[in-house]
Design a protein that fits this description.
The structure holds 3 protein chains of 3 kinds. By secondary structure, chain A is mainly alpha-helical. Chain A has one domain (about 1-115, about 130-280): ABC transporter involved in vitamin B12 uptake, BtuC (Orthogonal Bundle). Chain A is built from 11 helices and 2 strands. Chain A has a two-stranded antiparallel ribbon. Chain A is globular and about 60 Å long. Chain A starts with a helix and ends in a 9-residue tail after the last helix. In chain A, about 55% of the residues are buried. By secondary structure, chain B is of the alpha/beta class. Chain B has a domain at about 10-90 and about 160-235: Rossmann fold. Helices cover about 35% and strands about 25% of the residues of chain B. Chain B has 9 helices and 10 strands. In chain B, the strands form 2 sheets. A 6-stranded mixed sheet of chain B has the order 6-7-8-3-9-10, with helices on both faces. In chain B, strands 2-1-4-5 form a 4-stranded antiparallel sheet, covered by helices on one side. Chain C has 15 helices and 2 strands. In chain C, strands 1-2 form a two-stranded antiparallel sheet. In chain C, helix 3 (about 65-80) packs antiparallel against helix 4 (about 85-110), helix 3 runs parallel beside helix 5 and helix 13 (about 265-280) crosses helix 15. Chain C is globular, with a radius of gyration of 20 Å. Classes of the chains: A mainly alpha, B alpha/beta, C mainly alpha. Bound molecules: adenosine-5'-triphosphate (ATP) and magnesium ion (MG). Magnesium ion binds next to helix 1 of chain B.
């Protein structure tokens, strides 16, 4: 009995790693551009389909396909910001919400049109099924790898934002856009780069989501909600909080999933709402 | 009007600045020679900041010509203007408060002229207090120290022309004295300075020429010594 | 204002009044199919007016308004079928239940700052929908049909029934429109309009903005619940995916308001009417229907955040339905890059 629950909690923690990856990009766009991208989940699903297509067409492993796709998603994020989102940010919260909301519906229905309503998964060959034997527990190599990657990404992002030159630029623009433009640090360019980085996280999220769970054309919103809950639970702008938020949500969902599929989702939402009401500022707020 | 030194570093002709329908500057002419300190004085709302912001392309719309080092910069974007050697020390300092002093300075170096000759060491020599505080968030510094960072950030762009917007505002007189001494030493390296101040006495003391702005127009221009205080005050307030 | 503008505004008002009159006498000349479409139109109009009140005035961009439609539907079913309440009284139950759910939802939603609020409302809606799917007396996840006897209460013959349901929808839409108009003309509405157009001016009006926004949020719930009840009566079935349909009760509604013109009363009317006209042609296109509406709404936002009404208003030179006596400057657009 105890062993069962311990095992579930381990599964939940590992799932939380994936959720943290979902949330990284959203956290960055919220923290820097100050808008919530309603289409975040749909972009993840879109790239999963892209990975599926690339891997199938070229007969290559998805992990290799991911390496090919990352530059594309960087460019995609960069262009999206520069061409579209830049025109609506900064004036009010309303317009970027509405534009990304429109994008979300366009992506979902575009995917339905192109790929139908079937569910899909991605496969990375033998990695999918191999498992590790730790003590009395069996854990999949893939969930562990995803979790390790999540931790690495959080640390990498921390480095990028707080140690690198582009990170300082991004934080400067997040601090005071008008000041940046005034002294000649182009916020348009920095925003576009930041969105390009979000694109990279979206590609990684897409790959590991596709490896670990089913997806279909309309899975985007549920991924967005997970990412959103992770960001709010962790505390706005807090990278480590993202990891913690992901883990809490992952455990809640895994335990809820013992009852049935609806409870899996519901348990996540309820735990989110309770913690949010108790600590609206998040668990590890940055400021 | 006194003509500026032979080939001006910055020459502005017929500059008008608009914010939507509102016209903040009405066709003014201004020149700054290489290595010259030129002072812009004027009351609140006279259009001093608008002039500086127009030079770095940060206003809605302008008319007129702005030439810098012989090139027309009126249609260039801000980063290109800064990279060609004009640095603004904005009104109210406008540091990035959550970034450290060093990061704020570093941004100056990134946006500036490439292969610039100014390094961190020189800035810390100019402002020794900053060396100890370089890992502190700029928002935690005192007003005077923040102004030093703002000035340092501008200097790290390796400018040929420095635009200073009310750098003495809100600072203790001794701090202002220090800043002005610094400004002179910066100027002695051949950097031109366009100095906006409300404090007439102090800025005229170090300027070789000045322009007085009144409601978006030049009401008086010349060498500080050419006019008595009364004349300047009259043109300053427009009575 | 010039003379021809007076004339075109008067003309616009005549068109609007004519449409209202047409709706008022519709049952006398339309068949059941036509009435069904018009009933749907009126329900969607109610949803559009409510979403617009929140997003266009109260600065609450909700993506979860389908929750209250669903709650209304379930409450109506519960009252009329499970509790055996009189069907007309069951409408009151739908309104009250939606309001009762809005209270705790408000506590959650108002703790979220601006941009987060949108997704927050969505989470709340998801939770409510999932809970609805767990209710044993309501057919769990697959839902349940309304017994025929309940439908009969609204008219034994189908044509009488359709007319009754139409009148209910008409009454709801009229009440929603009139009361929202009065709300917007009250001090609360003026304060919110001032906040939207200019932060500083809003402080000067002396209206407590947080309270005003909360009032708006709570205001919409009963109307949405009633719309849910009428929709249920028309479809004769409740189920979590249909009663809480985000596509039908939120996505289309947002597109309608955005395309018609957010932040005005004319916009939602225009947008919803346009939606029904276009739907005849677009609905056959399946997924393209939504792709086209989504693209159209983005294009509109880029060209004129005030929507089609914003464009039309420039031609007409004034409001058809005056909300405040002050000229509305429209959304500030900052073109500096
Ligand atoms: N962004 C803006 N939008 C509209 N009007 C502006 C803007 N910035 C300045 N103005 C107007 O332009 C005029 C000149 O302003 P400016 O800031 O250039 O004056 P200033 O001389 O720098 O004043 P101060 O000494 O108070 O700094 C003022 O009337 C001001 O109201
Ligand atoms: Mg000024």
């Amino acid at each position: 009995m105890i062993a069962t629950y311990a095992n579930l909690i381990i599964q939940g923690i590992l799932l939380g790693g994936l959720y943290a990856i979902f949330a990284l990009g959203l956290s960055l766009s919220v923290g820097v551009m100050r808008f919530v991208n309603i289409a975040h989940g749909d972009f993840i699903v879109l790239v999963s389909f892209l990975l599926l297509t690339v891997a199938t067409a070229l007969h290559i492993n998805v992990l290799l396909a991911l390496l090919l796709v990352i530059p594309l998603t960087f460019a995609g994020g960069y262009l999206l910001q520069r061409v579209l989102l830049q025109r609506v940010i900064g004036q009010s919260v309303l317009l970027p919400l509405l534009v990304t909301f429109g994008l979300s519906i366009i992506v979902q229905n575009g995917l339905l049109e192109g790929f139908g309503a079937d569910t899909h998964t991605l496969s990375a060959g033998s990695l999918d099924t191999s498992s590790l034997h730790i003590g009395s527990f069996y854990v999949g190599v893939l969930p562990v790898a995803t979790f390790v990657l999540a931790v690495a990404l959080v640390l990498g992002f921390d480095w990028l934002l707080y140690r690198s030159r582009i990170g300082a630029n991004i934080r400067a623009v997040a601090d005071d856009v008008a000041a940046a433009d005034l002294i000649g640090l182009s916020s348009v360019r920095i925003y576009a780069i930041a969105m390009g980085i979000v694109g990279v996280t979206v590609a990684i999220a897409a790959c590991f989501m596709g490896l670990r769970m089913n997806f279909d054309a309309t899975s985007g919103p549920s991924r967005l909600l997970v990412a959103f809950e992770v960001v709010v639970l962790g505390g706005l702008g807090s990278l480590r909080g993202t990891l913690l938020g992901g883990i809490i949500l992952g455990i809640a969902q895994t335990l809820g999933g013992q009852i049935d599929g609806a409870w899996q989702v519901l348990a996540g939402h309820l735990v989110f709402l309770v913690i949010f009401l108790l600590r609206p500022q998040g668990l590890l707020p940055r400021y | 009007m006194t003509s500026p030194t032979d080939a001006p570093l910055l020459s502005i002709e017929g500059l008008s600045v608009y914010y939507q329908q509102f016209r903040a500057l009405h066709g003014i002419d201004i020149a700054v020679g290489p290595g010259e300190i030129v002072s812009i004085i004027g009351a609140n709302g006279a259009g001093k900041s608008s002039l500086l912001k127009a030079i770095v392309a940060q206003v809605d719309r302008i008319e007129g010509r702005i030439r810098f080092a012989g090139e027309d910069i009126a249609s260039r974007p801000t980063p290109a203007i800064v990279a060609s050697g004009i640095a603004l020390v904005p009104e109210g300092r406008r540091l990035f408060p959550s970034l450290t002093v060093e990061e704020n300075l570093e941004i100056g170096r990134q946006i500036g002229r490439k292969g610039g000759g100014v390094g961190f060491a020189e800035i810390f020599d100019l402002f020794p207090v900053l060396r100890d505080k370089r890992r502190q968030p700029a928002g935690q510094l005192s007003g005077g120290q923040q102004q030093m960072v703002a000035l340092g950030r501008a200097l790290l762009t390796d400018p040929r022309l420095l635009l200073c917007d009310e750098i003495s505002l809100g600072l203790a007189p001794t701090v202002v004295n220090d800043l002005y001494t610094l400004l002179l030493s910066i100027n002695r390296r051949g950097i031109g300075v366009l100095l906006v101040e409300q404090d007439i006495r102090r800025s005229l003391a170090i300027a070789s020429r000045f322009y007085c702005l009144l409601e978006g127009r030049i009401s008086l221009a010349g060498r500080p010594g050419d006019f008595d205080r009364d004349t300047i005050t009259r043109h300053y307030f427009g009575s | 204002m010039r003379r021809h503008q007076h004339l075109s505004i008067a003309g616009g008002r005549i068109v609007l009044a004519g449409a209202a009159l047409g709706l008022a006498v519709a049952p006398s000349f339309l068949d059941a199919g036509g009435l069904t479409v018009l009933t749907e139109f009126l329900c969607l109009l109610v949803l559009a007016l409510m979403w617009n009140l929140l997003a266009g005035y109260a600065d609450i961009v909700t993506v979860g308004q389908h929750a209250f439609v669903g709650v209304g539907a379930y409450a109506f079913y519960g009252a009329v079928v499970l509790l055996g309440v009189d069907p007309y009284l069951a409408f009151a139950a739908a309104a009250l239940m939606a309001f009762a759910v809005a209270l705790p939802a408000m506590v959650i939603v108002f703790r979220l700052r601006a941009a987060y609020l949108a997704v927050g409302t969505w989470v709340v809606a998801e939770v409510l929908m999932l809970i609805a799917g767990k209710l044993p007396n309501f057919g769990f996840g697959s839902g349940v049909s309304l017994p025929v006897r309940v439908a009969r209460e609204f008219g034994a013959r189908p044509d009488v029934r359709f007319a009754t349901i139409y009148w209910l929808a008409f009454a709801l839409a009229a009440a929603t429109f009139a009361s929202t108009w009065l709300l917007l003309r009250s001090r609360i509405g003026l304060g919110l309009t001032a906040m939207r157009d200019n932060e500083e001016a809003a402080g000067a009006t002396g209206v407590n903005l947080v309270r005003a926004r909360i009032i708006c949020f709570l205001w919409t719930a009963p109307f949405l619940g009633l719309a849910g009840a009428i929709i249920t009566l028309q479809k004769l079935r409740i189920s979590p995916p249909a009663s809480f349909s985000i596509i039908d009760w939120t996505v289309f509604v947002i597109f309608n308001v955005v395309i018609g013109g957010i932040g005005s009363l004319e916009g939602p009317i225009l947008g919803t009417a346009l939606f029904f006209i276009l739907r005849e042609y677009l609905a056959q296109l399946g997924t393209w229907h939504l792709i086209i509406l989504g693209s159209l709404s983005i294009v509109i936002i880029l060209i004129e955040p005030g929507g089609l009404w914003g464009l039309l208003r420039r031609v007409l030179g004034g409001d058809l339905i005056p909300v405040s006596h002050r000229a509305r400057p429209g959304f500030e657009t900052n073109r500096k890059s």
